[in-house]
Amino acid sequence: MLTLSLTAARGQYPFDGPTILTEDQGLSNSFVTAVDQDQDGFTWIGTASGVNRFDGREVRSFNQSDEPSNAHQDLVFDVFCDKAGHTWMSSIGGLFVFQPQHEKFRPFPYRNRDYLEGVWFYQFYQDRSGKTWVAANKGGIWQADLGKDTLYRHPLKPDGDFTEEERSRTNSVFAVAQDVRQDSILWLGTHNGLVRYNTRTNRCRLYRIEGPYADQNPYRNHFRSLYCHEDGKIYIAAQQFMAVFDPAAETFHKIQDLKSAPGPRYTSFCRYADDKLWLTYELGLIVYNTATGKVERAFVNSPDDNRFYGADLKDSAGRLWVRSPVGLFLYRPLAQQIKSYQHDATSHVDYGYLITDIVESRDQRTLFICESQGEGIFAFDRETEQWSVIVAPPAAMKNRPFLGQGMTRLRNGRILVLESYSLFELNENNRKLVRLPLASALPPGAEMVEILEDRRGNIWISTRRDGLLRVDPQTWRAVLYKGIFDIEGFDKRHELIFGLKEDRLGQVWMSASPGLSIYRPDQDDFIQIVKTPFAQGDPKELFYTCFATDGRGNVWAASADWGICMFDPGAPEKGVLEWYDDENGLPTFPLGMAVDRTGNIWMSGNKGLVRFDPQAGAFNEYGVSYGYSPKSQGYIRELPSGLIAIGVNKGFSLFDPASLQLNREIPVPYFTSVKVFDREVGARDSTWHYGDLNLSYRQNFFSFEFSAIAYDLPESVQFAYKLEGVDKDWVQAGNRRYASYTNIPGGDYTFRVRAANSEGLWHETPAALHIRITTPWWRTWWFFALLGLGLAGVITGIYRFRIGQFKKQHQLKTEYEKQLANVKMDALRSQINPHFIFNCLNSIDYYIIKNESQKASEYLNQFSRLIRLILQNSSANSVTLKDELEALQLYMQMESLRLNNRSDYLPKDEKGTNRE
């Protein structure tokens, strides 16, 4: 049995599939020196040339300063996010604090910084009262008061007799930690040992490692990192070893030597679990059990393989952040759910090692792996994570490679191993392969493909073009079914039989290319379905690759043409009853299928791992971000332990289907940019201040760019936005991260953007930006009011003017009519002489008195007729000669009567006169 090394497994430790941030992803420098997270969720990253902010997808560098020296572009010692929401940064140039409203760092303190010349600040620390302490290379321990913009120096004067050099080294502080029991006590790791400092009395005491060990180590008292454990002990990382200090006994105890490395020393402690304390240093990781007092595991970095281990920061979601000289390593628990293990054997064929089957040992500690080519069967110890090879008997192999095709554990516990041309039994106690006498049951050169044991104890072995073999394992007598798969119109290539699967009725399903065949044990015959009937539509000629039985006993078959198809094992001739493809939810074409204990079907494909709930018809996809290996080859099987194994090139992946979690991180949306007419405005611009955007009516074309803080599947974050007052509903933007608007009228608006993770879980509180657009003067209310008043005045003026015109016209008309009446009266008076009227009336009166009534009546008739003619002629524009002569004749007749016929008249006109 040969032993191989492990190349890609970290056991229970979460060091698979890291995300690595380097200069290629936007860091100002790949040499990462510090990392911390603020209250909003942003990750701040210090590098050898500046500080960066990371949201899970994008990196923003803050490497511009208003200071002439551009100090904070230099080597960053530490970044720190305090409880009040402030972000601090220390570099060779001094201390800096981030100003969110200006999106830049400013020096701290802002004024009177001359006394800080030559002071390098190594580490920030905030105690339980909220005070911020800073360790520096000289001056003792420093306290930063942001409210007063002041940095206070607390020199260290330890009790005892020390030389000036020793006191100077004591005031060079690397690390700070508060005592877990006394708030007034700070423990300081210095260049000269461990200092116990009382912040109330300013008294301090120095503890040093003395003795023979100290004489052999020149860096014995360079204490670079501290951790105060709840048991009161102080854990120390010195430059070349890890130790623990007991304050009660005032003694040091060395825990682990740390290999030295050239260059700066970066160390940090992380409380990974209740009894697990991790020490990250520049060469790797130490896992220390505080309960047992033992080192459980030591990881050594491998820069050549780009592997760095540690926990410089463990965030609230359990993600581990590890700084390194080649970038920032991010280990996400979501990506640790599917573990991958690979051996380092060398492949002798182009396609490498293909996993064909995996069997679990009785104690579930060892996995036996059958691969497509090699020297035998691989064995993997899950506790030690070591690989070994169980070599096939050379006499059986005859100088050819072992071509593994499959394995099965029989109901009696025996393990059978199928090789292309031989059948073996694996003895898991002595780890040996024994050849079984099966070759005589097959034609010479027959190539075997798959092996299956049914519930009756029969062993089924499929072949390539040589039929199907049923074997009795007690007698090893075999029955060969050959020729029954001959299909008219198909050559012998269709006789490749694979996908053996037993259903709940004991029937054995298999793919016969094309179509499928089903062995019915009660009838001892086969049902052949070349063209598969569909519940809806015509029969189709399908090629099936694998089969699975769900919790209800239905058989599901994977087809390259129609996705996954469901059959009723009691009536397979009815064909496909349900099917799913890429049009109704199937995320990827399945290369293999396995069923877990709850009846869910797990499918491995080229795009990821898929969980299918047959009852709900729901799919969930787990891609590379969940730990799924892109080297997966399609093999998938549930093990007796309940775990599911997936075959990958030269190894396998393993996961627990009961604990596999979907992404539950809710992305937090925020704005990255606001542009007006494609000109970016920021916090330093008066148009955008503390979440408000004030624009003039001329600036009515603006756009927003936004993102979200999300570290799990950030590329799958979905966005929706709405400009309240313009958009009636949310605009679904997908993964688009910008929105633009134009010709927006004046008024108050609110632009909101929300984000959802890969599973469609939305953040409850959208990011909001309030926008005020001024209204042009011709659209303001007062303008419309003035316009209305002016219009009303104009209408009133016009009305009054017209009324005046009407009155004037009426007055003129009245005057005219009056004058006309006067004229008519004058004309009438001119025609009716009053003297004549009086004479007529006297004549009438005379006739009445004389009782000459006939003459009085005649005279009165003539008088009334004359008056009527005069009135009639007075209203006419012209009077004919005839009418004038008639009136004249009546007048003369009346005058003749008055004169007792003593006068006479003779009208005469010129010849040819027209009286009409």
Summarize the structure.
This protein has 916 residues and is mostly beta strands. Strand 45 (516-520) and strand 46 (525-529) form a beta hairpin.
What does the model show?
With 916 residues, the chain is mainly beta. It has four domains: 16-332, 7 Propeller (Methylamine Dehydrogenase, Chain H); 413-655, YVTN repeat-like/Quinoprotein amine dehydrogenase (Methylamine Dehydrogenase, Chain H), CATH 2.130.10; 668-779, Immunoglobulin-like, CATH 2.60.40; 832-898. The protein has seven helices and 67 strands. The chain has a six-stranded mixed β-sheet with strand order 60-61-67-66-63-64, with no helix packed on it. A five-stranded antiparallel β-sheet has the order 1-34-33-32-31, with no helix packed on it. Strands 2-29-28-27 form a four-stranded antiparallel β-sheet, with no helix packed on it.
Distance between the termini: 156 Å
Low-confidence residue ranges: 3-10, 347-351, 684-690
The CATH topology of the largest domain is: Methylamine Dehydrogenase, Chain H
**Which structural category fits the helices and strands?**
mainly beta
Number of strands: 67
Number of domains: 4
| Beta-strand share of residues | 35-45%
What is the CATH class of the largest domain?
Mainly Beta
